Amino acid sequence: MNNLKLISEYQSFGGKLGFYSHPSSTCNGEMRFAVYQPPQAAEKPLPVLYFLSGLTCTEENFMAKAGAQRYAAEYGLILVAPDTSPRNTGIAGEDDEWDFGTGAGFYVDATEKPWRSHYQMYSYIVQELPALIAANFPIQPEKQGIFGHSMGGHGALVCALRNPHIFKSVSAFAPIVAPIGCPWGQKAFSRYLGNNQASWLAYDASELVKQLGYHSQILIDQGTSDKFLTEQLLTDVFAQACKAVNQPLNLRYQAGYDHSYYFIASFIADHLRHHAISLEKL
Ligand SMILES: N[C@@H](CCC(=O)N[C@@H](CS)C(=O)NCC(=O)O)C(=O)O
Fold first, then answer.
1. Number of structural domains, the chain?
2. Ligand 1 centroid to residue 56 C-alpha, Å
């Protein structure tokens, strides 16, 4: 299996959830991810949905907390949840901050030292991981979607907007939609990408949607009681950008919900349905 190592496996909703590690040529070290294969995967190839997690997460948070497996089994979708950064790279200070370095790869290809030797999460998500999944799991490569939460919502939007031929449906929970304009994004981009802010634009969903658009409706859920909404997430910047270019956007402000997985679990069924319908149409 291509150097894939199965770390642990669990039966779930009639299917199986596996945690894997593999040597990544893109990130120059071991990377981990989780895959849920619903029962239908034993019979035939299925569409696949990538979930990118937020700051501080590993490949486990989504699988343990979102409650997605029930709906993946219902719709016949394979779920893939990668880790949020390289780990144990030996780069000095990688574990010092919760919003930078380990657990905070921001789904960019770092160009700055010392991060660039390992922190290549954009290429990992759009190239190495899909190739590895296609080689080892019963997926339909023409039916791939992507979604994510917070930093992972930013990653999902950027990966889909830049690669609509790979990721044919996209949605997000509480995404960072304008990283060039918020403290989390500015901190990460200045250190991963350097001070030339022109290079940041390629990783800003609100800029990208104006330049590139997307071929189908984007679904976003955002809690109104999310403590990160006004300073970090800046949801309205993306709404305005979509409006300016007539990009179909289903932005749902969910009253009283915060930033947690309790919020994600409340709306996960709608997101899997959104992807199942979009990918089924292909
Ligand atoms: N550590 C941060 C919060 C980090 C956070 O909210 N992380 C989100 C993603 S941005 C998450 O999913 N955390 C892991 C979890 O809830 O399982 C704080 O103290 O405010």
1. 1
2. 6
State the catalytic residue, choosing from 83, 109, 221, 226: 226
179-186, long-range: CB < 8 A, 24+ apart: 179/106, 179/154, 179/203, 179/204, 179/205, 180/204, 180/207, 181/234, 181/237, 182/231, 182/232, 182/233, 182/234, 183/231, 183/232, 184/55, 184/99, 184/151, 184/232, 185/106, 185/154
C-beta separation of 189 from 108 below 8 A: yes
Q: Is the pTM of this model over 0.90?
A: yes
pLDDT by 10-residue block (mean), the chain, 282 residues? 89 98 98 98 98 98 98 98 98 98 98 98 98 98 98 99 98 98 98 96 98 98 98 98 98 98 98 96 72
143-164: b (≥16 Cβ within 10 Å) or e: bbbbbbbbbbbbbbbbbbbbbb
Whichever domain contains 167, its CATH number is: 3.40.50.1820
**Structural domain containing residue 198:** 5-280
Residue 41 backbone phi and psi in degrees, to 5:
-65, -20
CB atoms within 10 A of CB 26: 19
Name the residue of 56, 107, 176, 229 to mutate for ligand 1: max ligand atoms within 8 A of Cβ: 56
28 CB within 6 A, ligand 1: no
